[in-house]
Amino acid sequence: MKRKNDRGFPDRNAIVAFIKANHGKVGTREIAREFGLKNADRVELKRMLRELADDGIIKKKRHKVSEPESLPPTLLADITGRDSDGELIASPAEWDEVESGEPPKILIEMPRRPKPGTAAGVGDRALLRVERSDEEEGPAYRGRIVKVIDKAKSRILGVFRSLPEGGGRLIPVDKKFADRELNIAKTETQGAEDGDLVSVDIVRSRGFGLASGRVKEKLGSVKSEKAISLIAIYAHDIPLQFTPAAEREAEAAEPANLKGREDWRDVPLVTIDPPDAKDHDDAVHAQPDDDPNNKGGFIVNVAIADVSFYVRPGTALDRDGLDRGNSVYFPDRVVPMLPERISNNLCSLVPGEPRGALAVRMVIGPDGRKRSHTFHRILMRSAAKLHYAQAQAAIDGRPDDTTGPLLDPILKPLYAAYACVKRARDERDPLNLDLPERKILLKSDGTVDRVVVPERLDAHKLIEEFMILANVAAAEMLEKKSLPLIYRVHDEPTLEKVHALQEFLETLDVPFAKAGALRPTLFNRVLAQLEGHDYYPLVSEVVLRAQAQAEYSSENYGHFGLNLRRYAHFTSPIRRYADLVVHRALVRALGLGEGALPDSETPETLGEVAAHISLTERRAMKAERETVDRLIAHHLADRIGATFQGRVSGVTRAGLFVKLSETGADGLIPIRSLGTEYFNYDESRHALVGTRSGAMHQLGDVVDVRLIEAAPVAGALRFELLSAGESAPRSRRDFRSQRKSFKAHPGRSPKQKKRRPEKQKKSRKGKKGQGKKGKGAKGNAWTQ
């Protein structure tokens, strides 16, 4: 029986249960029909749905509602305010409002005597343990503070603009504070000059007028490209300096020796990296297996720098490494996770020098499948330092002085082993989204020289596949030993995203019949049948956007993109803290000596670490992306009025985002500049469609644009569209959609306006705008 309150209206729990029982989205019409509600009840129903959405119990997107995505048990959250009882309310720090609607609210439960480091206030960022609330009223989640990560900011980064009378104004770099300029008095400038990048402490905030600030630090002129990466570093609070204690520990570290290690110095392991790599933390070697029971098989050795030997749990080096979480790579600099004494010296597998390493020896069958593996703590000596193109050229018949002597004894067995493991990879059929990655090349003065797309070689794939095998071996070994670890996980796409993809593919007459469990093969099949077709880039982009984002977790739910049941990061402990944790766990599990994972580490504590380093990874990706945007905007600032060819990389209600073919730069074409007619946003087709002409601008379209504006500090470009839109195909579905859009945007159809002007005028009242401006193009949704 459907539960109702005293007035005969369904209660909150009954409505929520109905929404959860109906996967996908339902609207007020379906809810009213289910509970037999009259038109007079619609106002009360909408009020209740709005309250449920505000509390995060349901997700509301336009006229539809659905069950929200569940929050993980441990996450980073921003404390946004207080409820009517004065209790703190938080929201997830990472939440995609475009895809998932309003973020759920979390009620913070504070103990009477908070532990040190857990006292928090509005504006702070904290690590929380959360669970679903069993209360009928209020937020959908309740949480407990594990640790306060960042206190509310009272310092802003921006560009100093001097005033003729002295002093100046601060133009904030962060787009969120773009309209919050600060007044800097003449006595508070600390000698800052016009165009300097500065950090400013807020000293007074007024109820009206500009707030005041004091220059705390000068970071250099923003006119110099060499200062551009500093914007992202300071804007995202990426630690730039190591603590003195960590530096002292790094300087005191001694090179590894044979004590407690196997001697692998005669094994000809080689490193294969990008040509500009400064640290070399992985080396490989392969040879045919001489076991008669494994004819046609191989022995593959992967050796990884033994960072756990130098960075011990609880030390200053460990604390600094965890704080950073990972290295951050900019075109002009690297912000390393560990000091250079460790990352570029003692743990870099340079040729001819003895180095400590943790190695895995894998037996590969003739079918390419891994049959067994063993881990070893070794002392090794790299036989050579190669880069990808150099190794590939040797295999392709163009060896040089370095690769010539290595070709037969080392390189050919490596490539033969790769050809073997590739059979198993192809059979596994991981998600085949091999998207090109652009790289900015700089001149000696730090200015942009050009943007290139490095060729994807078999040498890249060889190293990638061997690293995946080693990562799987590490996860399997630790599970076998029942030790806690940090997994690299990647969830399958949500049903909502799969349904959206199906609807989009229907508009292209491309079948996507989902039967049984969701597998990467389904997406690969779609991509394969469109390869070489004009729609291929468009469909690749939409398939990418349907995927979840990979993350770290102490709980294993598999890696969908790689189609693996268990996976952990083991191969880059110099630049990723997750790999260091896995190394420590292996040392403990196998009794390999010093630097083991402490007994105090549990799945719960590692869950907190995983949540933190997932955030630092996303922080690094965002900082790297913003820096590239700023560098290219700086590079194009003197080409206003020039025309470029690009591809539509995002479609929103704000307009079209276009990625330039020449540089990969993204810029916006505002919807208001598309023409004199009104354009509707067609979500299923990822397109803007003109109501009068039917002209359609769709995700993936190749277009010509003119550069109208470049803002280097913000990393923003604005374009004017020069290409005409394609005519939208007409079908019954299109006409139904158009009728709905006329209803949603009354007054836009001349015929409707003539027939019922009064009703349209009334319906326009309170109409929402075009929606939030946001970048339509996203970075890779999943990574290894």
UniProtKB/TrEMBL annotation:
Name of a matching Pfam family: RNB
UniProt-listed GO biological process terms: mRNA catabolic process
Gene3D superfamilies in UniProt: Nucleic acid-binding proteins
Keyword Hydrolase attached: yes
Region (Disordered): 63-82, 274-295, 728-784
Keywords: Cytoplasm, Exonuclease, Hydrolase, Nuclease, RNA-binding
A GO cellular component entry from the record: cytosol
Entry's family note: Belongs to the RNR ribonuclease family. RNase R subfamily.
PANTHER family in the record: DIS3-LIKE EXONUCLEASE 2, RIBONUCLEASE
Name assigned to this protein: Ribonuclease R
Lineage: Bacteria, Pseudomonadati, Pseudomonadota, Alphaproteobacteria, Hyphomicrobiales
